[in-house]
Amino acid sequence: MTLKEMNKDDRPRERLVAKGAAALSNAELTAILLRSGGAGVNVLDMSRELLVKAGSLTGLSMMSLDKMMEVRGIGRDKAVIVAAAFELGRRFTAERTGNDDGPVTNPRQVFDLLIPVMKGLDHEECWVLYLNRANRVIGKERLSSGGPVSTVVDTGTILRKALERKARGIILAHNHPSGSPYPGQADIKETQALKEASGTLGISLLDHVIFSDLCYYSFADESVSHL
Asked: In which order are the strands placed within the sheet that holds 137-145?
């Protein structure tokens, strides 16, 4: 059955107008993004097939354009729209959680602050939080973006930017796409090097938090915390 053959009240766009976006399924919302079907399949069935292939919304957010295009009827334009929607979602969530004026006192706050921009990534990214004397965030920045198993931690760049912001504390954070937040030897060495270098400038490295999608490792706590 094509969408035109469906009852008008059952079509995704009409249902969104009548009942709001929250009333729609993931497949219906995805169908609105894809707009139209193709290759002999209607857009709702195409959306369902895409979600099945992805396994979850998190899986869909990690899919490459080429992987999405393996689904019948999805070309590059449709794949780009889906990728853009997920990136906007990440930025929106990060914007909402990035305006907390309270002091950062524990790694869970760091996790809540940065998980919107790190969840579902298929590559490592390194972020830095710059804090004032009261441990309030005065800057948040992605320092580097790397491959699936490593990214660059540039101590000189971190400290230069901390001095520019007159920061008295910094928190380093990066993700492990593998799903395990435990640090490797390189993570331990980089953390120690940054702690020693920042200390010579009167700047405290308050923590280094390693993310997976569902948990984190805090060097300050030296324990894994789960949602």
From this structure: 137-145, 125-131, 169-175, 204-211, 215-218, 223-226
